[in-house]
Amino acid sequence: MNNSIPVVSKIFCSSTPTMLMIRRRPIVVNGGGFVVTDLNHNVIFVIDGCGILGSKRELMVKDGEGEPILFVSRKVGIVQALSTRNKWNGYSMDYQGKDKLVFSLTDPKSCIATSTPMRIHIEPMRHCTNWDYEIGGSFADRDCRIIDCTGKTVAQMGKKDLIGGKDFYHVEVQAGYDQAFIIGVMAILDNINGESTRC
User: Fold this and answer.
1) Which are the contacts of 150, defined by CB distance < 8 A and separation ≥ 6?
2) Structural domain that includes position 154
3) FRET partner for 116 with CA separation of 20 to 30 A, picked from 33, 43, 80, 97?
4) Got the DSSP string for 144-160?
5) Cα–chain-centroid distance for residue 30?
6) What is the C-alpha to C-alpha distance for residues 90 and 82, in angstroms, rounded to an integer?
7) What are phi and psi of 168, to 5 degrees?
8) Backbone φ, ψ for residue 82 (5° rounding)
9) Containing H/E element for 91?
10) pTM to 2 decimals?
């Protein structure tokens, strides 16, 4: 597919827009994450959070077969402690378990920086100079989107009011964009907002 924009891998890019359904796992049953299915209820991704991994700052995105494909962790350390923003790093995992930095996301960690948008940098840097993607809207209200540096919406989140309230929502990923990357960003937003991936 010539127009694909892989971050984790081109195998997670589709030639058509794709609707992904997200359902939070109950905390008491394999808690600490959520499951992503297609419209036919086939499991596409599984996200493990603190309840399974045991660490508050780590997330794992697995494919439908249960193989780890993306490891996400929040950066810590003295420099990070003095910063006004948290930094999350996403690492792609190969079949041997080796990881490679593929993106980083920064979010404000204090009320002083809340007017600053969440931004995502792809590694290695793409055609944009300061950032590649930006997150707009409200994850808590299930109404947020990911846009690229040209202003194009690449993923749009929505809620399913009739089924499960906040436990069930969807994300539409536009053609050519990496679905594993988008779900990794959703996992970070879930954690930032204190939802299913948090302890």
Assistant:
1) none
2) 10-192
3) 33
4) EEEEETTS-EEEEEEE-
5) 20
6) 22
7) -140, 120
8) -85, -10
9) strand 85-93
10) 0.88
- Give the total number of structural domains in the chain: 1
pLDDT in tens, 114-131: 567 899 999 876 667 789
Question: CATH code at 42?
Answer: 2.40.160.200
| Pair 137, 155: CB distance under 8 Å | no
Using one digit for the tens of pLDDT, what is the confidence trace for 64-117?
Answer: 999 999 999 997 755 544 456 789 999 998 766 668 999 999 987 654 445 678
One-letter identity of residue 183: I
Q: Is residue 114 part of a domain?
A: yes
Cα first-last separation, the chain:
39
Q: Residue 22, Cα to own-chain centre: how many angstroms?
A: 12
Closest to 93 in 3D by CA, of 44, 134, 118, 59: 59
Residue 182, C-beta contacts closer than 8 angstroms, at least 6 positions apart: 20, 146, 154, 155, 171, 173
Question: In the numeric block, which tokens belong to residue 142?
Answer: 């299930």
Task: Name every residue whose Cβ is closer than 8 Å to that of residue 128 and which is 6 or more positions away in sequence.
Answer: 148, 149
Residue 175 resides in a domain = yes
Domain membership of residue 199 (yes or no) is: no
By the 8 A CB rule, do 5 and 176 touch?
yes
Answer whether 74's CB lies under 8 Å from 45's CB: no
Measured distance CA(53)–CA(71) in Å, rounded = 11
